[in-house]
Specification:
Mean pLDDT: 93
Number of strands: 14
Radius of gyration: 18 Å
CATH class: Alpha Beta
Strand order of the largest sheet: 1-2-3-4-5-6-9
Distance between the termini: 36 Å
Low-confidence stretches: 1-17
Shape: globular
CATH topology: Metallo-beta-lactamase, Chain A
Largest sheet: 7 strands, mixed
Helix content: 25-40%
Strand content: 15-25%
Length: 295
């Protein structure tokens, strides 16, 4: 549990830094088996979903490009077949940074329409004071969808479902109904303040809606892969949803009173939540500013 905790926290802390500024020398991949064919890979960046079976291999997200060899090694320990598909839950570099590598190897990259649009043009991330240049052609999704898509491989269906204006405007969660497994990407940060990219069309209302949509699909036995944090349960997701609702209520009240985001954040409105949710790379004050920006 201690080793898993530090692996998860490393992934979260690395989110805020460009890949070129990081040292991946000692980075590792932890493989967590969920079913006979499904796995969760924990490394540096967003958690990866992995399907391995007779039809081949596909992954949900691919972290940073420098992690690609380690990801390939973890997959090779389970299968000698190539990665056929990469499904991106959204465009951020800690989830889609390996696209160019896997795409260059021949994998078909699948994502929501808005993921491709944002990767083609490049993006600004004011929250981290950085610009993300346009992606290389090999990194771009070549199959996109507007609402839903499905992969029928390895004996079961994986459903990709768009979650509008949540973490970004291009989020998708991936549901394996037969296996009772759900990958939520960054619409779910398990146990820590989430980053909500208001500058890419995200907002806390959409995050709550995403949690509600996910809760309608899961039960007490569902294994939920969050974008960041340890493998989760329905109870963890419900706790996250209620936390978001509490923060939204406070933020809307401040806005109705005419406060700016800076004024509200400076008043320490989430100080009581810092101990429980502040173990990631965002402080309560930073999270408050991000939430207000996306109201």
């Amino acid at each position: 549990m201690i080793r898993r905790f530090f692996a998860v926290m490393a992934g979260v802390l690395f989110l805020a830094l460009p890949a070129r500024a990081q040292d991946f020398t000692n980075a590792t991949i932890e493989t967590i088996q969920l079913t006979d064919t499904l796995y969760m890979l924990v490394g540096v960046g967003g958690n990866i979903g992995l399907s391995v079976g007779e039809d081949g291999v596909y992954i949900i997200d691919d972290q940073y490009a420098p992690m690609s060899d380690r990801i390939k090694a973890a997959i090779a320990a389970l299968s000698d077949k190539p990665v056929r598909f990469v499904v991106n839950t959204h465009w951020h570099f800690d989830h889609a940074g390996g696209n160019e590598v896997f795409g260059g190897d021949g994998a078909v990259i699948v994502a929501h329409d808005n993921v491709r649009k944002r990767m083609v043009t490049g993006q600004e991330m004011p929250a981290f004071d950085r610009s993300v240049p346009p992606a290389a052609p090999a990194a771009l999704p070549i199959v996109t969808f507007s609402e839903t898509a499905a992969l029928h491989l390895n004996g079961e269906e994986a459903r990709a479902i768009h979650l509008p204006h949540a973490h970004t405007d291009g989020d998708a969660m991936i549901h394996w109904p037969a296996s009772n497994v759900l990958h939520m990407g960054d619409t779910f940060f398990n146990g820590i303040f989430p980053f909500i990219d208001a500058w890419s069309g995200g907002g806390i209302a959409g995050m709550i809606s995403a949690a509600d949509q996910a809760l309608a699909l899961v039960d007490e036995e569902t294994k939920i892969i969050p974008g960041h944090g340890p493998l989760a349960t329905k109870a963890d997701l419900l706790k996250f949803r209620d936390f978001l609702a509490t923060v939204q209520t406070r933020a809307l009240s401040a806005k109705e009173k005419g406060q700016t985001g800076e004024e509200w954040a400076a008043s320490a409105p989430l100080a009581d939540l810092q101990e429980e949710w502040g173990g990631g790379f965002l402080s309560a004050e930073q999270f408050a500013q991000i939430v207000f920006a996306g109201l």
